[in-house]
Give the backbone structure.
Amino acid sequence: MTPGSHAPTASGTSGPVYPRRPGRLSAALLVGTFVIIALAAALSFVGLPYVVLLPGPATNILGDEDGSPILSVKGAPTYPTAGNLDYTTVLVEGGPGRRNITVYDLARAGLRDSEVVVPVEQVYPPDASQKQVQQEGAAQMAASQTVATATALRALGREVDQVVDIASVPEGSPSAGVIEPGDVLVSVDGDAATDPDAVRTAVKRNAPGDTIAVVVTRGGKRRTLEVTAGKASDGSTIIGVNLRVDYDLPVEVTVNTGSVGGPSAGLMFSLAIYDVLTPGELTGGTKIAGTGEMTDSGAVGPIGGIRQKLVGARDAGATVFLAPADNCSEVVGHVPDGLQVVRVATFAEGLAAVEKVAKGEGSALRACT
């Protein structure tokens, strides 16, 4: 090439080479790319009113945590046992005091059968703070352990007296300044406070504005209090207290669940307490997991997050899962491979199921259909 000549262009002709200006289509694509990137960045920070439920860990109530037994019983003879009675949990992404759920979280959950997206109000009370959520969960967990203890003791033929006490008194309620949290109800309007329904019936027999005599035990002393009844939003008569069923238990039971809250471990607590209070290994050494809220009547109530708990149980090595009968419709079609799900409606059914599994007769147990 001689001095002053030009290099060939792409067309093979001779001439100077100049940078080409982007055409309209290229410019549009460039702008569109920037818009998509900006939108994606924005969506990653936009919080949505949902939470994502994921499988949580399963914990063997019969096991140890940091060298200490998770379950301890005082005031009654206990017996060594083996095997697993796992309570299962659900991890919740989002909610009060936690990071916001974004569109990416929803997309991820949509691709995984073990994750479920639900509106936040289905899991947490409106306007609840993180502290309030934790306190409520801890209270529910403590109550579930108490009901579980009573259930196990009754199954062993022990008599357990039930009492109704005051869980809380909302600020501004008719009972504020009169009735105190921790008061044990003896009678309301002359009727024995045998259970929460009896208390509500006695209150509703009055009209708003009436004075109702409430007898309580406080600090070991009986007191007669007078409460001016109020009116609820539906027009019914109230005294404005939150009730809690408690028991006069002959033994002291402690279950170390750490920061886990909620009432759904009641069935498994009951079985574990029954196990350590009876000779032999209830499970026969089998790894059994489950869930379900225990009620005072011995019924097993439904819980949330059953699909996530099934996966968590399977991942922890369980081969049998006890599921509340009222959750069976959510179980069908979502049972992980290698896990047998057994339908139970009462503590007695759960106990019988575990005993059959221990004998090698678990295959005949009723499944969720």
